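Hi F.,

I've been meaning to write this up properly since the lab meeting, where we talked about keeping a consistent format for the predictions we share between groups. The idea is simple: the sequence comes first, exactly as it goes in, then the structure tokens exactly as they come out, then a line or two of notes. No screenshots and no reformatting. I'm using this chain as the first example so we have something concrete to point to.
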Amino acid sequence: MKLLTILPIISFLTTFCSAAKFASCSGVYGPRYSNKINPFINVTFQFEPTHKDINYTTLIFHYTDIKNSNIPQFMDFENPDDNSLKICDEEAIQNRECRELGKFIVNYRESNSRIYNEVLNFNERSFLEYPVMETGLYCVYIQTLQDVSGGDYSLDVQFQQPYGYLSFNDVLKFNTLASIQLPIVTLLLLIISGRFIYAKFFKDSEISLIQRAIFHYTYLIYLKTFVKFLRLWWLNSVDAQVSKTAAVFSLLLIVLVDAFDSITWGLILIISQGFGTLYDKSTFPKAFSKKIILFMAINFFMRVVAVSNLGSNISVLNEAGSINPSETIIGLLKIFGFCWVVKSFYKTAKEISMYFDLTTSKLFKKSGYIICFVPILMNLLTIILAIVHTLRKYADTTIDPIEFQESSWADSVFTKILILPNLSNFVSIILLLYIWDNVDSQKVDEENVAEFGAPSVGQVVLNKNNDDE
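Output, unedited:
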């Protein structure tokens, strides 16, 4: 999947050979209309001692004609035994392979890719900012022309997206937010709010607690979506890398999204129990309240830690692939949350069916299944469609990995497939509204509870009046 999920890369390389070699690749979106942040590739070379005269060749290659490029994979380039990317010398000039000493030998005549190929001097220019003019996969190759074994050096390459330092997946999600998610969830929120206001003030009827829970669930999803969209607009309006205030505000928006996500999980767990949703908060077990608060706090803390570890926007990738422990823990935490929800439903299903009418009991269980399983099914559907699409499009097993990445970057079908998990919340809300649309709130919250009484944990307590009837 890392061939499909192209992330911005920062890479540092330390070798024990005489010449330093470095390579890094990333997909970058081209300039977008009305964006104040223009995409670019930032190359920084640091060397100690600073007085030493070091020349280094920098090649920035945009893969648009891979088969004729004569450019190796960056893993092969870092291999000291690989000579597929040569430096221009006197012999190469005599053989008409190149024209200028020190530059990389590249087949210009057969390749229509845009190339930057220059020899730079460390004392004169240790910083390079290369503008990106179109969407595609870019690779940076750097090699020093002198011995660097006597000093300490570092090479830093950053791929600046037009939205700021955002990963490929983030850009896809934010594009979806701007075009699909925010209008849909705003419309749902207006419809639900209008129904509640009409029922409360014009029909003078009570709103059931389960319907309130659905409203709160929708409202939290709206807040998450709105804050994400606000961050996208903010990154398009200001350069968060220049202004400290802008950077702090961007980080605050990320924290708010994580907070809303954690609260949403807590609400899902409350709905899964039935307590506090079908009755009132006084019947909600205090011990279970502490567990939910602890779960929300851990989820929020781990998400914030993951953001700080990633530098908010940048991911590191090497040949073997890197794993962020915070992201792994968050994934395990969500799996635990799903298991907890499922367990809660099966545990309370019998109790609810005993003191509520059959229709309400079934609707409650259906609500739980919708909230719990719709996101799982949407993610499974995404994985299946992505695998099938990838196998059909890239059936040739001999395809070059760089060509595979370049094709994936411009794959509109795959982009649409990745959007599916982001729509699971709206599918859940629509289904919940559909199944609870015609339920009489008086029947759910007053008649049944008044007749049978709110049960204690694990028990059903019937009133004596029930026997007289």
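Notes:
The chain has a mean pLDDT of 66.
The chain has two domains: 21-160, 168-313+324-438.

If this format works for you, I'll send the rest the same way.

G.
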